[in-house]
User: Fold Branched-chain amino acid ABC transporter ATP-binding protein/permease from Bradyrhizobium zhengyangense.
Amino acid sequence: MQSRLPILVFALVMAAIPFIPGMPPFWIVLLDNIGLSALVAMGLVLLTGVGGLTSFGQAAFVGFGAYTTALLTTAYGLSPWLTLPLSLLISGLLAVLLGLVTVRLSGHYLPLGTLAWGLGLFYLFSKLEFLGRNDGISAIPPLSIGSFKMLSPGSIYFAIWVAVTLSALLTMNLLDSRTGRAIRALRRGHVAAEAFGVHTPRAKLLVFIHAAVLAGLSGWLYAHLQRAVNPTPFGAQAGIEYLFIAVVGGAGYVWGGVLGAAIVVILKEVLQSYLPLIVPGSGQVETIVFGIMLVALLQLAPGGVWPWLMSFLPERSGGRKPDTSLKLEQRPRASGQSSILLQVEKARKQFGGVVAVNNVSFDVQAREIVALIGPNGAGKSTTFNLITGVLSATSGSISVLGRKVDRAPPQEIVKLGISRTFQHVKLVPDMTVLENVAIGAHLRGHSGPLSSMLRLDRADEAKLLAEAARQIERVGLAEQMHQLAGSLSLGQQRIVEIARALCVDPMLLLLDEPAAGLRHMEKQQLAKLLRDLRDGGMSVLLVEHDMGFVMNLADRIVVLDFGTKIAEGTPATIKTNPEVIKAYLGVAA
Ligand code: ADP
Ligand code: MG
Assistant:
């Protein structure tokens, strides 16, 4: 949980600036522009920096916000305070429409898609009669409170910076929540997040809307600052510039958006005022110098200026330990002795010509540790992916407690109490261990984005973090709780994945090579943990290459070779099975 003190200091400083004696009015105008850009950049921080969705089209949403209020206040005489929610609503609704189409694009197609609608909407603004075509709309009324009209840049300054401060606060609150963790997992961990119930397309759409609403807010303020709108500031070039601002400031950080806006707006202003004095008659030179300076800046601070500045601050000590006495509701356990938890029947998966899993059948009973072994490429991980819904089987069927789940996506499988770890660790490296593990409890929390922004989610959130902390302690990583997951050794990261999987309150735990990279002592601790879990009522299905580990731990072993099950039985029978020895264990075993 981050402190909110910096934002209070920021608000006080911004409130004091206009009262500094001798403050040139020109600087206030500049600060107004910085605030307007900062709002848009803040949205891009969430969308692009955190969510990994690059958008060149944000200027269009600024346009929607600006034109909505321009039209409604001039043609229909509505009060600007009434058009504020409408401007935000229209930007948000259009984000839903454009987002539904665009968000599903991947790779280069997404930024190209946003560029396309950025261009398209610009032409729409400049062609529509009721929006005044290229001339736009003028005589927009100023914002006013009672008889006080915000006519000067110095008076609307307060409205702009109140908007920036509140938006920063709400955005940071959102990022520091259940929904925020889902958003932060979009860029580098969506497969894992989905395995814990995160609905990725919904999270993407949410950041799209959030960014668009912030841009719409900027547009609404812009319209009442300029008191006139025309299409030019909402074109694709402006869209590119907003992205630039976010990247220069530090696209992963809310304050990066604000800082980037300050850097870019001031740099442009300085160049425009002073460069002609140095290089007379220069038309395009300032654009070139501007570009060179920004590239130089990014060389110096590749992640953006904000994180670069922060790296000079002394490192903050770890966060507070959550109150582990708080409890989440637990899953009702199926009673009865001989329950077959998981049944795999003739599961088959074909990748082109390769049959990765060839009509494999086995089951996992309640309170049982089953090991899946076999040489590399035998189809073990693919079997895991079939069970957890990451892949769907070519044929055959998979049932959980007698219910067929063949076509269920990962988000549904996890609801049944099956959780997993990944052979190739999938943690969000720039989130703490605690935050990563808390993603495992995603489905056990209920707070949505709005309550997170308003901090109404604290009770819910405290329980999620308590559960995460408990599971981290259980796997023996309490000391690393507040470290970034990416800073841990690979072996420890695997253990973090187990803690995350345990946060599901699973009935069945699927572990893909959990002991890889662990030292001897750590392996013994892991074996003890897994036995304890089984004795506590959980089942475990694990893939592992360390035969000493498997033979001592598993109740039953299933052996795969070239996608086919070649043996199944207790460790003692598997050890002496001639076919298994030939295919996998070798003579030495
Ligand atoms: P194991 O985990 O037992 O080492 P895998 O299940 O990863 O084996 O792989 C089994 C076979 O399926 C291998 O031949 C592998 O190359 C192939 N395979 C696995 N995943 C894919 C995929 N997504 N696309 C194509 N082939 C795959
Ligand atoms: Mg594998």
Observations:
- Residues 351, 354, 356, 374, 376-382 surround adenosine-5'-diphosphate (ligand 1) (CB under 6 Å).
- The mean pLDDT is 91.
